[in-house]
């Protein structure tokens, strides 16, 4: 099996404060979706990414924030095992970021030995 990374991209809502109940419901949706992938023995790892960061360009030009020049950010990722890119795409079905107006970018992982 090959490994694929799903990058979760979205435009963060500025000034919107979710209730604790809404945050918990969102967390459960993510846990259920990832649990479904794990139940198929296709889960490798995942992490949520924070909002703080720096972007380094040529000549050591440093800007605040991840991709500060664009509004869309990568908020997290999951690494899955699949036999093909098409199977990895199928695993993205039901990802909660899609319901929030975001999208999933799926990339194959190339391991150098």
What does this structure look like?
By secondary structure, the chain is α+β, with helices and mostly antiparallel strands. About 25% of the residues lie in helices and about 35% in strands. It contains three helices and six strands; from the N terminus they run E-H-E-E-E-E-H-H-E. The strands form two sheets. A four-stranded antiparallel beta sheet has the order 2-5-1-6. The protein has a two-stranded antiparallel sheet with strand order 3-4. The two termini are about 15 Å apart. The mean pLDDT is about 90.
Characterize the main sheet: 4 strands, antiparallel
Instruction: Determine the fraction of residues in helical runs and give it as a percent range.
Output: 25-40%
Strand content: 25-35%
Order of helices and strands: EHEEEEHHE
Quantity of strands, as a count = 6
> What's the pLDDT, averaged over the residues?
88
Report the uncertain regions. none
Tell me the strand order in the biggest sheet.
2-5-1-6
Radius of gyration: 16 Å
Structural class: alpha+beta
Number of helices: 3
Distance between the amino and carboxyl termini: 16 Å
What's the shape? flat
């Amino acid at each position: 099996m090959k490994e694929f990374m799903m990058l979760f991209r979205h435009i963060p809502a500025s000034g919107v404060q979710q209730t604790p109940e809404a945050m918990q419901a969102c967390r459960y949706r993510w846990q259920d979706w990832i649990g479904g992938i794990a139940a198929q023995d296709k889960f490798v790892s995942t992490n949520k990414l924070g909002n703080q960061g720096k972007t380094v360009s040529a000549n050591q030009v440093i800007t605040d924030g991840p991709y500060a020049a664009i509004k869309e950010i990568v908020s997290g990722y999951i690494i899955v095992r699949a036999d093909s890119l098409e199977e990895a795409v199928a695993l993205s079905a039901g990802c909660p970021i899609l319901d929030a107006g975001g999208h999933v970018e799926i990339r194959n992982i190339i391991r150098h030995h």
